[in-house]
TrEMBL record:
This is Alpha/beta hydrolase fold. Keywords: Hydrolase, Signal. GO terms for molecular function: hydrolase activity. Residues 1-17 form the signal peptide. InterPro entries: AB_hydrolase_1, AB_hydrolase_fold, Serine_prot/Carboxylest_S33.
Length: 515
C-alpha cells in the first residue's frame, strides 16, 4: 500500500551477484492493496536501482496505482499511463481513469499509473524552502542578473542534492524508461503498452530507443522533441503560444459570450502586461503582492491549454477591473512556497535538455528571437522560468535524434494549436521515425488530443486495443467552434494543474476488437 509523502530508499541485498537487467529487477512482482486515498483503486510499489549502472546498489520505491479492466473476459493486459510534467502523477491519473478514458479502453485494460522517480510519491526531488524562495526573477535584463542566477543555481543544486540524496543525479528520462521496463516485467507483461501525454512522451521515446523489441504499443500524445537545441526549443515554444493566443483572440472577436467581446483584446492584454511591469496589477484574492508580467503570460498559456477560452476572457476582464468569474484559478507561475521543503521537478528537465547559455548576451539574443516570433506573448513562460534553473546543471540525457529499431508501429498525436507542446514537435518526431510512426493531427486547440473529440480519441483506442494504426498523416478535422466547445472542458490532470476544473463525461468509443 502506498502512503502519500516520501518513500524510503533502501539498499538491495546480494551486492556481489551479477547485475540484472531491468526486466529481471521487475520479476519480483507487485503486492497490490486498496489505496488509502482511493479505495476503489489498488496501490503498490516496485523497487528499482537508484543508479541503473549499479543494479545491486540502493533502490527507490516507485509508487503505482491500478484500476482493473472492467471486463475481465475482454482484458488485453496492462496499460501503463503517465500525464507528463515533469512532475505529473501517474498515480493520480489512474485514480481519475473513469473520467479520463473511454469505457471501451477501460474494458480492455488494467489502467496502471506510476509516479516517476523524483516525482510525487516516488521520492520527489526536494529542496529547502528557504533556499528555493531566494530564487531570482525569471527574466534576466543584465549580466548582473545572469551572474546572480549563476551563483544561485549552484547553491540550489547543492541544497537539493543534499535534501534529495543520491537519486537527485539519476532522474532523467532514460532512467525512467528503465524503470518502465521493470514495471512492465513486474506486471507480467511480455511487451509494453503505454499512453503518455506531454513530457511523458519523452519517457516513451526513450523506452522505444532502449527496448525496441519490447514495444507492443506506444501512444504518445502531445510530443516532446528531444532533438532541439536551446534556441529552437525556445523559438518553437514562443511561436506555439503566440498561435494559441491568436486563436483565442479570434474566438473572442466572434463569440458574444466572450467577456471581452467587442473590445480590442490585444490592447487589453498589452495594458495588463504594462500594469504588471509597473507593479500595479493584483490577482483576484491575492492582495498582498502584485502580479509579475510572467504570471500574466501564464494566463495566456493555461487559458489556451484546455482550451478554457471563456474562463480566460473572464480572468482578463477581471484583471482589467471587471467582476471575477465564479471560479478563480490559483495564481499561476512559480512563486514562494510555505513549509520546510519545496519540490523541484525542473531538475528532471535539466537532466534531459541542455539549456545552458554562456552569458547574458547570448540569453538576450535568445529572448529577442522569441520576441520576434511572439509579438503579443513575447515568449512562452514555461521554458523561460525553467531555463535559468538549468544554467549550470549537468545534462545526463542530452538532446539527440530519436533512434528506434523496433518493428511495432508507434502512434503520435498533437493538436494543431497547442501552446505547450507545439505541433511541429510531433511532426519532427514523426520525421525522425519515418514509416515506423503515424502522426494523428487534431486540427483544433489545446494540449493533448485524447478525449477532445471522437475523431481524436477513437484512433488511439483502436491502436491500443487492436494495434490498428490510422492512415499516414491522419488529420482529424474540427467542425464549428460551437461543436468544439460542447466537447472541450478541463477534463485532464495535465502537467499544469491550476486551470483544471470539474471533470467531464469522457467520449464514448464504439467497441473495438482486441488483438
Amino acid at each position: 500500500m502506498v502512503a502519500a509523502g516520501l518513500l524510503p530508499l533502501s539498499t538491495a541485498a546480494n551486492a556481489a551477484a551479477a547485475p540484472p537487467a531491468a526486466a529481471e529487477t521487475g520479476k519480483r512482482g507487485i503486492t497490490w492493496a486498496p489505496c488509502e486515498e482511493e479505495p476503489e483503486a489498488e496501490c503498490g510499489t516496485v523497487a528499482v536501482p537508484i543508479d541503473w549502472s549499479r543494479p545491486w546498489g540502493p533502490t527507490v520505491d516507485l509508487a503505482l496505482a491500478r484500476r482493473k479492466a472492467t471486463d475481465p473476459a475482454a482484458r488485453v493486459g496492462s496499460l501503463l499511463v503517465n500525464p507528463g510534467g515533469p512532475g505529473g502523477s501517474g498515480v493520480e491519473m489512474a485514480y481519475a481513469a473513469p473520467g479520463q478514458f473511454t469505457e471501451e479502453l477501460q474494458r480492455h485494460f488494467d489502467i496502471v499509473g506510476f509516479d516517476p522517480r523524483g516525482v510525487g510519491r516516488s521520492h520527489p526531488v526536494i529542496c529547502s524552502a528557504s533556499v528555493y524562495n531566494q530564487m531570482p526573477h525569471a527574466v534576466m535584463t543584465s549580466q548582473a542578473d545572469f551572474d546572480r542566477w549563476t551563483a544561485y543555481t549552484k547553491k540550489l543544486r547543492a541544497d537539493c542534492r543534499a535534501r534529495t540524496g543520491p537519486l537527485y543525479d539519476h532522474v532523467d528520462s532514460v532512467n525512467v524508461a528503465r524503470d518502465m521496463d521493470a514495471i512492465r516485467a513486474a506486471l507480467g507483461e511480455e511487451k509494453l503498452t503505454f499512453y503518455g501525454v506531454s513530457y511523458a512522451t519523452l519517457m516513451g521515446q526513450m523506452y522505444a530507443e532502449l527496448y525496441p523489441h519490447r514495444v507492443r504499443a506506444l501512444a504518445l500524445d502531445s510530443n516532446m522533441d528531444h532533438s532541439l537545441n536551446v534556441k529552437d526549443f525556445l523559438d518553437t515554444e514562443a511561436a506555439a503560444v503566440e498561435d494559441a493566443f491568436d486563436q483565442f483572440v479570434g474566438w473572442c472577436d466572434q463569440e458574444p459570450s466572450c467577456a471581452l467581446h467587442g473590445r480590442d483584446v490585444r490592447a487589453v492584454w498589452a495594458g495588463l502586461r504594462a500594469k504588471a511591469r509597473a507593479g500595479e496589477l493584483y490577482y483576484p484574492g491575492v492582495p498582498d503582492r502584485p502580479m509579475t508580467e510572467v504570471q500574466v503570460l501564464w494566463q495566456g498559456v493555461l487559458g489556451t491549454e484546455g482550451p478554457a477560452w471563456q474562463l480566460l476572457s473572464e480572468m482578463l476582464n477581471a484583471l482589467d477591473g471587471g467582476p471575477p468569474p465564479s471560479w478563480v484559478p490559483p495564481l499561476p507561475g512559480r512563486q514562494p512556497v510555505s513549509g520546510e521543503v519545496a519540490e523541484l521537478p525542473t531538475a528532471i528537465l535539466c537532466q534531459d535538455y541542455n539549456l545552458r547559455v554562456r552569458d547574458y548576451d547570448e540569453y538576450a539574443a535568445l529572448m529577442r528571437s522569441s520576441n520576434r516570433l511572439a509579438p503579443d506573448m513575447s515568449y512562452n513562460p514555461m521554458p523561460i522560468e525553467d531555463l535559468p534553473v538549468c544554467l549550470n546543471h549537468p545534462t545526463t540525457n542530452p538532446q539527440h535524434r530519436l533512434r528506434y529499431t523496433g518493428s511495432a508501429p508507434l502512434l503520435l498525436g498533437n493538436s494543431l494549436h497547442d501552446p505547450s507542446t507545439p505541433h511541429i514537435w510531433s511532426a519532427n518526431v514523426a520525421r525522425q521515425l519515418g514509416p515506423k510512426a503515424t502522426l494523428l493531427t487534431y486540427e483544433g486547440w489545446g494540449h493533448r488530443i485524447y478525449g477532445k473529440d471522437r475523431c481524436s480519441t477513437e484512433p488511439i483506442d483502436a491502436y491500443l486495443i487492436s494495434l490498428t494504426v490510422p492512415p499516414p498523416d491522419f488529420r482529424c478535422q474540427v467542425g464549428t467552434v460551437a461543436s468544439l466547445l460542447k466537447n472541450r472542458s478541463e477534463q485532464w490532470p495535465t502537467d499544469r494543474l491550476p486551470w483544471s476544473g470539474p471533470a467531464a463525461t469522457p467520449v464514448v468509443s464504439p467497441a473495438v476488437t482486441a488483438r
